Amino acid sequence: MADPKGFMTTPRQEWPRRPVEQRVRDWDEVYVPGALLPIISKQADRCMDCGIPFCHHACPLGNLIPEWNDLVSREDWRSASDRLHATNNFPEFTGRLCPAPCEAGCVLAINQPAVTIKNVECAIADRAWEEGFTPPRPPERLTGKTVAVIGSGPTGLAAAQQLTRAGHTVAVYEKDDRIGGLMRYGIPEFKMEKRHLERRIEQMLAEGTKFRTSTVVGRDVPADELRTRYDAVVIATGATAWRELPVPGRSLNGIHQAMEYLPLANRVCEGDLEVSPLSAAGKHVVIVGGGDTGADCLGTAVREGAASVTQLDIYTQPGSERDEDTEPWPTYPKIYRLSAAHEEARELRTAPAADADARLFAASTLRFTGDERGNVRSLHLVEVDEQRLPVPDTGQSLPADLVLLALGFSGPDQEDGLMEQLGLALQPRGTIARDDGFATNVPGVFAAGDAARGQSLIVWAIAEGRAVAAAVDRYLTGSSRLPAPIRPTDRPMVV
Question: Which residues form a coiled coil (predicted)?
């Protein structure tokens, strides 16, 4: 604990964002480049080095947060990097994309603003790359065992890296033309520039991990062939079966799923397209769904030059403080948060009819109406109460040339034939069934990440990847020294 009084003398200061008018004109990350390092050591001083650090329990990776906070406050960046990477394969991903349940569990957060744990994590990761603290770590010897990992999202990549470093020969199969899963084509560039992803892929290639892109297992490669070729198979395909909105007018042109829209915008940033076929330029856009995916659509539509953008959230507007009765510390509370995209929408006034920033809360979609050509032109909604029942005389219509459905995901996509060919048992909600060792009902086949857990956070995805790697290593060799931070049955802290 470098400064015993740091939490009393230093106020919370976060990584500043670039001015809205500037950042909406490009796709670069929203933060001011170079503005984090000058403030981060003092922010790390605010960590109290608690006797029982609940940030550990709030983070499924078990990140050693007080330890690397202390090292950062002393500007011992190499040691901080070692402690951070001991529990997290990709801290530059989580430092940018995770909603930071660790900060909700910070003891300081009982009566003060929490330590900026997420910013400290990001600063360590970026400094580690700048200083060369993250070289490839190829295994000293090979075990002769082979593993196929299906899916290259955070779960698949974490599992592959851990198994490669343990000495197994690992091949990652990805259906898209580039590695990264939703981090590649689902997360907008302004939230995480893809250079961070490319850097890790290069590291993994140097360590010996092999990648097979543009390959749909179950269609391009039969699942049984993969089982025969490899000693173990890890299914980490994610939960990509999106939820639908079965209301009148759904079949009109111009209504699309968020994950049809976001990948095209990312492909523009990759240089594959000059303009997205679903560009929001000049259109009145309505986003149905109040989560992070909806916010990603919001920021993307603003950058594409939409005429207006409104986001509908079926929940009532949360308060700015946690409800100690229903969501006491150290659980992750549902409070009003202003993401970078919402900040942009508020300042640019993209949604004149919205309650706050671009959001209409307690709003339920009733139907869509269109023109004579079958194109959507209006979205009709009604206000709902806490039981989601319509409130009388609250109906209204919004102009809508482009509607984006961001309603979450129900489980893994089954259309490729993978699960049917393997004969995998499923849970009632559509996720892959597995035992306490991440093993499915098919010998040698393991399941991890959103495909088995259900839609979750990136930090849980990485934890699943690390844990399933330990299970596979044990299956192949009889024992394992790889860390297993979580069990399949573990869940976030709730009341």
Answer: none
